[in-house]
Amino acid sequence: MKNYAICLIVTLAFGLHNSVLADNSKKPSVGKCKLTIPGHESSQDLRHQYPKKLLLRLLKVTEQAYGPCDITEVSVSSQKRIIEGLKETRIDVAWLPAHSALKDQLLPLEIPIRKGLLGWRLLLIRSEDQEKFSRIQSLADFKGMRPGFGFDWQDLPVMKSAFGKVVTGVEYENLFSMLQERRFDFLSRAIHEAWTEIELRRKSHPQLVVENHLALPYKQVDFFYLNKNSQALHKRLFEGFRSIIRSGSFDRLFYATYKDDIERSKMYRRQIIELENPNLPTNVPLEDPQLWIQLKDSGQTPP
Q: Where are the domains of the chain?
């Protein structure tokens, strides 16, 4: 088995492509604003915490030019409803996995908010099945195993392309019960999601663990998305991103949030099986290595 180590490029401090860093336009003041964002889907859903912190930072660094901004959270039960809320302006800003279909429906802020970490996938399994997963060396070895996934998650085409039939669940929280109850055999989760989700549900789902042998990465990012007509807000957030990239604040927030999860994943010990993302949009900056977590034959760890 070929081992890999994960090398995190210290991203975006300098040299990000000119479209992000260069700006000679004036900054019109738009006064105080009020923004609505999606909240968590359950009391144990912590997935929105980092995007919210990042959004608040973008608004803070642009406050002098644009004025203060208040944020209100609304409960939204699925990605489908988040997209509908953005299109109908019931939601002003949301974070979603990039998908080719979304570019025509919404206005993306085309800077990866998690540097591709969303595409680094581990598996949640039942603890009794670890020996079976430890024997897997290639995608073909998954034959007969059933993956689970959210029915409207933007990455569902990745799973279908790799595994064919996928068992889907409507409610985020129900997916963990479905796994424990043997409705499917594994649930693909990003590095920054896997352990938190298991630890929060240790009492209610004691059989579930993070699988310790495999990683199934694919190219994926999540963007902030806005309504198509939210050009002024898009400009403000874009300027805020450029500011925190230059100052190093973006890197500091990212690594303060995710460094432990990345190190805990021990990628250098895992069997890497890369998947294809058939719906990765063309506006994702694939050619810029500074924007991505890179796999290298080295032992570097996050700064």
A: 12-116+222-263
Segment 206-246, tens digit of pLDDT: 999 999 999 999 999 999 999 999 999 999 999 999 999 89
Quick one: angle between helices 249-265 and 49-61, nearest 10? 160
Question: DSSP state, 183?
Answer: S
DSSP string, 214-273: EE------EEEEE-TT-HHHHHHHHHHHHHHHHHTHHHHHHHHHHHHHHHHH-GGGSEE-
Q: How far apart are CA 244 and CA 251, in angstroms?
A: 8
Task: State pLDDT tens for residues 180-203.
Answer: 999 999 999 999 999 999 999 999
**What 8-state DSSP symbol labels residue 62?**
T
202-211 pLDDT tens trace:
999 999 999 9
Report whether 42 contacts 172 (CB < 8 A). Answer: yes
Domain covering 12-116+222-263 in this structure, CATH number: 3.40.190.10
Q: In what order do the strands lie in the sheet with 93-97?
A: 93-97, 222-226, 107-109
Average pLDDT, rounded, for the chain: 85
Nearest CA to 148 out of 194, 121, 179, 172 is that of 179
Per the structure block, which two tokens stand in for 144? Answer: 């007969």
Question: Pick from 247, 239, 271, 204: which is nearest to 4 by CA?
Answer: 271
* SS3 state at 108: strand
The contacts of residue 298 (CB under 8 Å, 6+ apart) are 5, 7
Q: Inform me whether the pLDDT recorded for 29 exceeds 60.
A: no
Closest CA to 175 of 160, 189, 187: 187
In this predicted structure, the answer to whether residue 83 has a pLDDT above a threshold of 70 is yes
